[in-house]
Every structure is written in structure tokens, then in C-alpha cells.
Predict the 3D structure of the following.
Amino acid sequence: MANKQITEFVSQFKSIYEGEPWFGNSMQEILTDVTAETAFHKPTKHAHSLAQIVWHMVYWRQSLIKRLAGDTTYKGSMKSEDNWSTEAKLKALGWTAIRQLLHTSQQQVVELLEKQSDKLLDEAYSEKASYRELITGIIQHDLYHLGQVAYLKSISK
């Protein structure tokens, strides 16, 4: 298989999003019955809501999507106001739209990765990281926050 490593990354994205991942429920399973009320609930004043976390996941996926689509200038920033959007902006957008953005980002990641060869993985994404590190980081980031999403969902019931 010529692109064995890319194929494995695609498999991981698919498994985490809608498959049967080793760790438990997929993103789709976790989010399937989340209502807007649950999505925007904050367990404490300074905590992020489930909707904010999903938005944040989509925001960082854009670093990979935009680069794979040819925008070599795009860089996500922890200081960007879009990194952790305000509750007001997200409520105006709506929970259904946020879920759709996550779904669209999933489709884009998979489609764009499937067009790549393993050679991409060792190319520089930035001065400090390769595409392999970026892709691995996005997967790790998704998993980290998916655990938070599952927890927030469980305590909102």
C-alpha cells in the first residue's frame, strides 16, 4: 500500500468520529442526543460549555484543512477570539449549525487526507512541526476534548 500511513490517519479520524473506537463511544454517538440546552449548559461560571468545546475542536481542525487545501499562510492561534468563541456568538449560530460545522470539518479532513501521499507527513507544516505532528496533534486534541464533551453531557442529565 503506497500511502499506508495516510490511510491509517484517515482510519483514525473515521473511527473516532463515527466508528467503533477502542476507547468507547464515537463523537457521533456522544453528540447524537445532545440538545441545545445541554450544549450551552455551563457547569460552573468559568467552565466552557459543550458547544464551546466542539467549536474549539472545529477551529483547530481548520489548521489542517486549510493547509491541505493549499492555504500555506493559515495558522490557528491560541490568542484568536475564534479559538474559544463567546457563548453569545455560538448561541446566535445555534447548536445545529455547530454540529454541522463539525460534520463538514470531518468530511473535509478525510477527503483532503485521502488525496495525499505519505511523503506529505515529513514535510514541514511550520518551523517547529511536520504534517505528521500536525495530524497526530489534531487527533490527540479531538480525543482530549471529546472526553470533556462526554463528561459535560453526563453531568447535564
